[in-house]
Each structure stands twice: as C-alpha cells, then as structure tokens.
Amino acid sequence: MKINILQQDLLPGLQAVSRSCGVKSSLPVLANILLQAENDKLKLSATNLEIGVIKEINAQVIEEGELTVPAKTLVDVVSSLSGAEITLEASGEQLKISTPHFNALLNGISATEFPSIPLSSDKSITVSGKDVHISLPQVSFAAASDEGRPILTGILTEIKNDNLELVATDGFRLAHKKTTLSGTNGANFKALIPRRTFEELIRLVSEEIGSKEVDQMLEVSTSENQNQIIFKVGNTKLSSRLIEGNFPAWEKIIPTTMVSSAVIDRTSLLKAVKLAAVFAKSDTANIVKLELKDGKLRLTSEAKELGGQESDIEAKTEGIGLLIAFNSKFLIDALQNSNADDVQIEFSGNLSPALIRPVGEEGLEYVVMPVRLS
C-alpha cells in the first residue's frame, strides 16, 4: 500500500473512526484502525465489536493494500503534521509516514486479524439527517448508562407510517419523541438500539452535516441476520449490534390523570433548578422540592453542610396546590434538551409521576418519577 493524502483530509476521518476503537479490549487489533487503499479511496475502519465505523476519503492511491495500525499513535502523529501532504506506505506489518521534512515507522498488525464489520442488506430506509440530528439528543439522555439492566440502555426506535418514534427510560424517568419523517416510502422498522450507538451517530451526523444548508440523507438498514443496525450518512457507515429483549410497556408509564398543572418559562425554570441543585448534593439524592400554589412555583433545596435556598417563579397554574420532590438532574436534563419558550408540567399527585411537555414542540414529552420525602 502506498498513498498520498492531505493532512486536512486525513485527520478528521481518523478522529471520527478512532472513537470506536476497543482500546481496553484483550484483542490488540481492536485498538487499531484498518487502512485500506483502493480505487483512489482510503477506507478507514474501527470497531470495538459492538460498534463499527467505516469512513471513505479521497486519496491518491499509488499502490493498493491494507494494514492496521494503532489508532492513538496515528492520530497523534497526523494531527502534528499540520498542512502537509502525507505519504503512507506499508511494508510488511509496518507503516511508513512521511512528508518532505518528516519520517516515521509505525508498527502495525496484519489486516487479516481485523474482524469484519457487518454491512447492510439491500433493503434500507432513507430519512432526513437533520430530523434525526434534532430528535435523538432530546431522548437519548434518558436511557440507562448502567449495564445492570441491558434493555434500559437501549432506545426503542420505530419508523411507521412516515413517523419516527423514540422512547428511552432508565426506570426513573422517560423521554418520548414522535416526529414526522419524509422519504421513508411507507417502510416500517422497529428495533432496540444502544444508547452509545446513538451518541456516536449524533457525532457522525454533526460532522457530516456541519454548516451545510443542504440536508444530508441518512440510510437505515439491518444486516441479513437482523441483529445489526447500519446507518450510512455521506461517506460514513456506522454498524452496531441491536439489543435483544422486550422493552417495558412504556405507554402505561405516561400519566393519564392530572390534579394540577403549571405553564412556566423554560429558561427561568432551568436557571432556578440549576441554582437549587447547588444545594441538592448527592447525599440527599439531589432532591429539589417544588411547591405549587397561588400562581407561583417555589423551589427549595438544602444540604446540612451547605445550607439551603428557595426561589419563586411565576407560573400559570391550575388545580390544587401540592408539594413534590424530584432529582434535580432529571429536571435539568428534560429542560435543557428542549428549545421551547415555555414548558407545561402536569402533576398527578405528590407521589405520582409528573409529565413535562415543551409548549409548541409537538410529540415531545418527559415523565419524571418523584422522590419520596421522609
């Protein structure tokens, strides 16, 4: 293998795929990036056996070939060669990296030891990259990060009748988003996709879309054995395993009755909750108390070693007055992942879940479980 490529073309691709390397794996080759040169393209691949990323970039291919090399070292070297045209030349299991003023040899591992990354079947759904880029962050944060219950680390994803529906829950809160898509051609799709996969997809779509005004379309498909999901945006493919199992009956979690409600300025509420969180330290489960009465929402919090605080926010209230407590982090996550001016909070009682709906953002809702006060 021998290629010439500009540093500014190579570096972003290396950085994008290197995030998916299995750096803590017992298999050394998973810490490497697979370089494959053919047809005036350099294909970069990385995988941790759960997520795999493949990215193609233009290059002057003098001699075709392939080799895997350590991702971190390669990224560190290339990022230091600013503005230079770089020659990459493989000889045996070594990669020579050179510019007019620099030469280095990097020990690699044969490409035959690199695991294959599952690719899609012929059937795929094409959706708007911007739609997905907006919707995913509004939901993905609510999925569990603890692997103790693998099902809850996934995001239920369904495309049906030109609608995209996303649901995530960690058992203490739930996020639900339903939005209309264009370009699905009536195709249906349903899968439980890992939170980490969506977090990486958000980054990749951001990098592909950048500041472009033209929307990048996102292709979604499954592997032939249906246990892998594959996304393709621009010149990048992301492959991931799917989570097997039954997702909780989330529809039953959403409250259907209401005893009180409040419409509040989202920014004001977010600032007040963040301020209350300063006094709601982890030794008190990050507890923030909300008291609803007389057209106001009062937030109070306290910690023995710090003291306490209270703040009042104007609100349009309906129903009975009540006192309820929440984990401040769950409120902050819900409030800062919306762009609405106002939010409506519906209360079913001081020991029942609350429903948060950003006003004007159709199809987006959050459910937060309360904390029992002793």
UniProtKB/TrEMBL annotation:
Assembly notes: Forms a ring-shaped head-to-tail homodimer around DNA.
PROSITE patterns: PUM
Pfam families: DNA_pol3_beta, DNA_pol3_beta_2, DNA_pol3_beta_3
GO CC annotation, single: cytoplasm
UniProt-listed InterPro entries: DNA_clamp_sf, DNA_polIII_beta, DNA_polIII_beta_C, DNA_polIII_beta_cen, DNA_polIII_beta_N, Pumilio_RNA-bd_rpt
Keyword DNA repair appears in the UniProt entry: no
Keywords of the record: Cytoplasm, DNA replication, DNA-binding, DNA-directed DNA polymerase, Nucleotidyltransferase, Repeat, Transferase
Classification via SMART domains: POL3Bc
Top-rank taxon, per record: Bacteria
Span of domain DNA polymerase III beta sliding clamp C-terminal: 252-372
Keyword Transferase part of the UniProt annotation: yes
Family stated for the protein in its record: Belongs to the beta sliding clamp family.
Gene3D superfamilies for this protein: 3.70.10.10, DNA Polymerase III, subunit A, domain 2
Residue intervals of the DNA polymerase III beta sliding clamp central domain: 131-248
Domain DNA polymerase III beta sliding clamp N-terminal: 1-118
Entry's localization field: Cytoplasm
Main function: Confers DNA tethering and processivity to DNA polymerases and other proteins. Acts as a clamp, forming a ring around DNA (a reaction catalyzed by the clamp-loading complex) which diffuses in an ATP-independent manner freely and bidirectionally along dsDNA. Initially characterized for its ability to contact the catalytic subunit of DNA polymerase III (Pol III), a complex, multichain enzyme responsible for most of the replicative synthesis in bacteria; Pol III exhibits 3'-5' exonuclease proofreading activity.
Principal location listed in the UniProt entry: cytoplasm
GO biological process: DNA strand elongation involved in DNA replication
Protein known as: Beta sliding clamp
